[in-house]
Amino acid sequence: MAFPLIFILVFGFIGNSGGVRVHIAVDNTSDTLNAIYKILDNNPAVKLYADSDSEIYRALKKGDLDAIVHIEKKDSGYVVKVATSDIAVQNGQLFKGIVKQIISEMNLRAMPNIALPFSLEDQPVIHGREYKTIDFILPGQLGFSLLSTGVFGTAFVFLNLRQTLVIKRFFATPIKRPFIVLGEAMSRIIFGLIGASFILTLGHFAFGFTMIHGIATFLTMMSLCAIGLIIFMGFGFVVSGLAKNESAVPPLANLITLPQFLLSGTFFSITNFPDWLQPICKLLPLTFLNDAMRKVSFEGAGFIDIWKDLGALGIWGIIVYALATKLFRWE
Question: Is residue 142 located within the same domain as residue 291?
Answer without folding.
Answer: yes
